[in-house]
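Biliverdin-producing heme oxygenase
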Amino acid sequence: MSTVSLGERPSISTSLRDATATAHERAERSDFIDDLMAGRLDVRAYSTLAAQLYFVYRALEEVGDDLNAADDTKPVVAPIFDERLRRLPRLAADLDVLGVDISTVEPLPAVTRYVAAIDATRADPARYVAHHYTRYLGDLSGGQVIKSRMISHYGIDKDALTFYAFDGIDKLKRYKDGYRDALDGLPIDEAAHGRLLDEAVRAFEFNEALFAELTA
Ligand code: HEM
């Protein structure tokens, strides 16, 4: 017997991409990113961004480790959790090469709010997934363009851009397709799916707020 599915909901990956498309465009066109990508800024601007991202990834990876280790939250986080994505040691190494002593850097107000939001997802792993998606899929996509522009515009050494190098992942496109399949198989209900979408839009907004503060 065949069944007709009426009004089937879009998959998690499709709905995420759709829900964040406008926010993505805004982030990509923000003054800071636009200036950085056009070569109108300098190495310091990139270093400042990398230093602020240090606090974001510290939270993202600490919370991810904890959620992936706990029996009740692991089923939601494990499908997307991947050691090859871990960025904090790379950011730390990049900052060293860039001559930034992170112990002297304070998070900007937007980053403090961003980190608090990531931390709050300890209570709701579906919301955690939103932050994971927003940053890592971004790094695997636009991040690759950022890397090449930082080299060509500012002469930043590749050794200071290991943040964008994903060892052990050779085909980024294939990896992202696999990531989207993992998203689509997450064991979450409709309500959690809705919270994931809301949180992804917020995650983009935190990035936009960071860019606005970097411009100011
Ligand atoms: C320099 C600015 C940026 C450029 C040039 C850029 C470019 C791109 C491109 C070309 C894709 C499509 C990749 C694909 O489908 O395989 C993409 C996807 C994505 N980008 Fe960006 N991006 C930029 C900034 C950002 C920012 C600031 C964020 C968030 C922090 C972000 C998050 C994402 C995410 C989550 C995806 C995956 C969308 C999906 O397929 O679900 N991007 N980006």
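thats it. The chain has a mean pLDDT of 96. The two ends are 62 Å apart (CA to CA). bye
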